[in-house]
């Protein structure tokens, strides 16, 4: 019985890992070669609540390895991994489902070789950071982010978004319904790229979110906020921004974590 339940969780919740429950099945695809896949660490798996049965809970590690993250006039190619770790499961007696946030990590990515296009000035980098909000609902992965803009002239506290005013992503696989001028886009459903250990590949998208203006730029005093916002086209209303996250996901039930 436990084996069949584990298969149910691994198949059904694997789709949940990619789409918040939007996909009922997982298609098969040719296995990817090992050197094309990222490494998956389960060190950030969250602790289960008291009384939760580890057989019915699964930890998921989703690594975004490509795609784009357009914020206003900034159209950033995702050039380094973004890793999200979380758990989902259910109560076998009541059928009630739940989820837990585990961790988020991302390296900085090059935005501009020279500030505002000037090749003689130090490069600008952007680093996505978790902004205190995660959930699985309405067939979407809900994720709140902020982006630190890094450059010596901007100081260490220059951010697009914040914990109190984040970039609110609702990532999904089905076609979006954004406000104009954006047009509907859709992701790609999970496919099996490796069976042992299990790895799925999919693309999640959102082009309906708004982006707040940058704050805290210029030695932390905000004196260059206006310049950053002019350059980046911020704040940017919904319908002018796009997230396309190409992901690999690996997963284990909690009784497999050891």
TrEMBL record:
InterPro entries: TAT_signal. Residues 1-24 form the signal peptide. The keyword Signal applies. Keywords: Signal. It comes from the Bacteria. PROSITE patterns: TAT (PS51318). This is Secreted protein. It comes from Actinomadura parmotrematis.
